[in-house]
Amino acid sequence: MRGRSVILVLIGSLFHWSAVAQYASFAGKFQVDQIKGCAPFTITVTPNPVFPCDNSNPCAAFYENTTVSEPLITPPFTHTYTQPGKYTLRVLRSTVYDSIKIEVVSNIAPQFDVYTCDNYEVFVQINDSNYDEYVIDYNDGSPQVTVPPSGTHSYNYGSPTTRTVTVRGRNLNAADNCAEAGIIVTPLMTLPAPTITLLEVLDASTIRLELDTQPNILYKLGIATNNATTFQQLKTIYNTTVDTVVNLKTDANYYCFQLVAFDPCSNTPINSSVICSANLDLSARNNVIDVRWTTAVAAGTTFSLNRSASDGTVLITTPSASPYADMGITCGIDYCYQLTVNYANGSSSVSSSRCETGFSTDIPTTIENITAVVGDNSVVLDWQTDADFIPAEFTIEKSIQGNYSLRATTTQNLFADDEYRVEDASCYRIRYKDVCDNQSLLSPEACPIRLSATLLKDNSISLTWTPYSGWTNGVSGYTVEKYTQDGILLLTFAVGNTTAYVDASDDLNYQTFVYVVRATATDPTIGNSVSNRVAILKDPNLFHPTAFTPNGDNLNDNFTVFGQYVAGFEMKIFNRWGELLFTTDNIQTGWDGTFRGNEMPEGTYAFIAHITDRAGRTFKRSGSVLLLRKD
Description:
Blueprint: H1 2-12, E1 23-24, E2 30-32, E3 36-38, E4 41-47, E5 59-62, E6 70-72, E7 77-81, E8 85-93, E9 96-105, E10 112-116, E11 121-126, E12 133-137, E13 145-147, E14 152-156, E15 163-170, E16 180-185, E17 195-201, E18 207-212, E19 218-225, E20 232-238, E21 242-245, E22 255-263, E23 268-271, E24 275-276, E25 279-285, E26 288-294, E27 302-309, E28 314-317, E29 324-326, E30 334-342, E31 348-350, E32 354-357, E33 370-375, E34 378-383, E35 391-400, E36 403-410, E37 414-417, E38 427-434, E39 451-455, E40 461-465, E41 475-484, E42 489-496, E43 500-503, E44 512-521, E45 529-530, E46 534-537, E47 547-548, E48 566-574, E49 580-584, E50 594-595, E51 598-599, E52 603-613, E53 618-627
């Protein structure tokens, strides 16, 4: 007993009694002002005056369940708990303890909403139960209001002045130190009607809504399936202008929505206009895609259909009703459609996108116009196809001496045959498959122009060629082009529809000529077909007189060998005994019938002429000439 009494005296001497103390320790040796509060939670420890704690009687306090103490010398003493939890506060003097339980709770700001009502009234809804009670302050000088967890309260401001409504949580038998939260609100005389401005189907289960709403108004979203009348409340909406509705079946149904501005003070609704999704479906048939949709149609509703395609084309049309037959379909192209429903109030409903591939069973149009341009041991073919069909692959067949076989396949409407030979008399036929795997018939034969040339005795050139076949409307005419060996165009001859021409034109500047024949199509949209190139080398065409009369009358006074395209010349004159009488390397210089200044007698003389033409060819001419002397 003595020991216990000593302890009581020692502990009691640490403290003096304070009027603010409310909760006594287990042994009554000290008091605290609060035993429960929100973090951070500050308590004040007031000792019992019977048991002082001073320099003569040092004491220690253990606040947070640890072995670390704080000295207690001059009361009162305070301590702040920063972390939520349950603590045993112990005070020690010598070996004697006294204690009390302290509880620190999380400092959580209350969750609540403030809804505006008609006539400047507001409605407060507490949304949590973390505290024993909640204190509402309307911050207009009116008394604070206490409500239970998840409680409600309405209040009339009487004017449209913007206010901040604050709420704090409070526990019984605890400090009133918990955090408060505030919401700014502007009271309204009348709640405005809401609008759903945009409905957008995002995928097979989701619809997104854009809303014309105002802060602090409680909205209720209603939904009806495949009708626009039997609405069920789906959710409440508050302080947002966008909402997403999930877990739908938009591929099988259409959904209508109505937004209600709700007055919780008077339990009265204000309804928006109805807006509905559109369930879009596609079906493809030959050269057509049918677009169908189901939705609820209100007065003043119009439709806009947007089509995009894999070939980059875009179509926007305004069908009056479902279904809509899209006739502008090309086989093998992917088409995607999206429907927009336009309401009279300016709202829009956008469907999800649906895609379908066009197909056709139509046989592609036969290729009718093939143009052939012959080069050196090659021919280039190009052709036209019907724009209504998209080729996937062309097949080219080639004949040699009338026998056809597969030559090549290509995806282009152009083919270069580097195995073409004029002497083979080849022709070509082409067919193609379109992107829907439909195959055309074989085209008519396309036979390149085969040109040949013959040098006639008078050095004129005879040209003949095969008529061009490959164009449906035929050839309007042929043109012969005459070039130098270096490719300089000299002359052109329009020869009509004939397939032969003799070039008797005389041109001593060039010895070699190159000829090409061009066929012009009757259809002006088709390019020319061109023959092979033929080069002709003309002969020097040497000739000489059989007699000459060197009598000074300037008529046939000299013997000369004449020729064309002469690059080198040498001529010698001999008498009947083989004696050399005259020699020259100039074709313009002839023999005047003299030898060493003396006139030679009449008679027959022999000559030998060696000539080199511009092509480097050599020629020899020899013969006799009769010298006559006439007065």
